[in-house]
Design goal:
Number of strands: 7
Distance between the termini: 26 Å
Low-confidence stretches: 187-195, 201-207, 210-214
Radius of gyration: 17 Å
Number of helices: 9
Mean pLDDT: 80
Largest sheet: 5 strands, parallel
Amino acid sequence: MQPTVWIMGGPGAGKGSQCSLISGKYGYSHLSTGDLLREEVRKGTERWVRLYEIMDKGKLVPDDEVIALLSESMANLPNSPGFLIDGFPANMAQANIFIEKIQAPHKIIVLEVAEEVMFERLKDGVNFDDQDDTIKKRILTYLGTTKPTVHSISRKWPTSIKIVNADRSKEEVFDDIEKIMDTWVGIHKGTDYIVLCSECNMNATICIHNTDNN
């Protein structure tokens, strides 16, 4: 399967903006769990309409539902050179189910920003779930569930995870992300991605198995 990058960070950290920039340069398909869920809710399908109440309260959607939606979306993009999974995983259960059902992440990028910055950025949000009370609940959910997940992931995949200071302009943040993407084991060539070492590519930015890379 194509390379997969998890883009993590709190609400308002700029995940969507950075995914757009990454997608523009590297051609990866941007899959936002929040956007995918909101779109399903707007369609009014029987399967997803019940999720409106969950999202409206700032709570997390059941893990199996999120993984199923991601899996379906990825399957519909067989020619994509890679995937950016925006706002995922929200907890370790999601991470483990994703690995079991789809694959392990090739890279994990965390956009770090203070809670007060998240709140100010989200006050200008355009989504139906971006009201003041819901914003506070979303931030509390992140601090209570997702942020500890970041710490757990950093222990599980210390060579794959990269923390980026997102309390800067999007251009400055993207400069750092470009360095992460460009030092990945493999070669970005047009819309293709050539893996040099599938073993190393799962967990490192320097290949110790291929002497051509040393």
